[in-house]
Amino acid sequence: MTIRTMKKNLLLLLFYFITGCLFAQKTLLVEKLGGSGRYYYHSGDIMKLRVSKLDTILIGRLWAIHDSVISISELRPFDVRIKDIGSVYKQYAYAKKFGKYAAIGSVTFFAIITFNHLINHQQVFSPDVFIVSGAFLGASLISLSLSEKRCRTDRGWKIKVLDIDVN
Questions:
Q1: CA 53, chain centre distance (Å)
Q2: What are the domain boundaries of the chain?
Q3: Where are the alpha helices (DSSP H) in the chain?
Q4: Using CA atoms, how far apart are residues 95 and 117, in angstroms rounded to an integer?
Q5: Which position among 71, 79, 106, 153 has the lowest Cβ density within 10 Å, counted as fewest Cβ atoms?
Q6: How far is CA 70 from CA 22, 61, 73, in A?
Q7: How far apart are CA 28 and CA 161, in angstroms?
Q8: What is the pLDDT of residue 146?
Q9: pTM score
Q10: CA-CA distance, 113 to 119, in Å (whole number)?
Q11: Is pLDDT above 80 for 133?
């Protein structure tokens, strides 16, 4: 072996150990026992959960993940034991975004059609106003109600802390 290849191998080995130490992280896993549902949370993710002992809902960023305690923070970190978590709410961003846009569209169409009827000296509240804006409002309410899934720990969902290490 030449000195040049030994330097390359040593540098590669050093790089491997340095990146292994840098990329070690803990992951919070919420999974359905006997099913295929798995949701992963890392530090910095937005999370909504219900604490069973306090019977409160916490919404905030996942600040830190330890072996048996996680920290949720909005302004200051609040420590929660994993055994005290009653349920975790999985948020679906696209359904929530569609629901918000459909609600805005409902109000917009209601205003436009009503304004058009006022300009043309027609009856202000006609069936077409309620059909179009009501359809958008119904779609937004359905989408907003389906934008969140409740994963209850007493109904087959389990919360684990995974320590992912490259080494």
A1: 23
A2: 25-89+151-164, 94-145
A3: 3-22, 93-119, 127-145
A4: 33
A5: 79
A6: 21, 11, 10
A7: 5
A8: 95
A9: 0.70
A10: 10
A11: yes
What own/partner pairs with CB < 8 Å and gap ≥ 24 does 14-20 have? 17/167, 19/166, 20/165, 20/166, 20/167
pLDDT in tens, 56-96: 899 999 999 988 999 998 888 889 999 999 999 999 999 99
Please name every residue paired with 152 in a beta bridge, in sequence order, or none if there are none. Answer: 87
* Residue 82 token pair: 């994993």
Tokens of 166: 């490259």
Residue 89: both structure tokens together: 């709410």
Residue 8, amino acid: K
Q: What is the DSSP letter of 124?
A: S
If you ran DSSP here, which 8-state letter would residue 82 be given?
Answer: G
Q: Residue 56: which residues within 8 A CB-CB, separation 6 or more?
A: 50
**125: Cβ contacts below 8 Å, ≥ 6 apart:** 114
Alpha-carbon gap, residue 87 to 157, rounded angstroms = 8
Residues 84-129 pLDDT 10s = 999 999 999 999 999 999 999 999 999 999 999 999 988 888 888 8
Cβ contact 38:31 at 8 Å:
yes
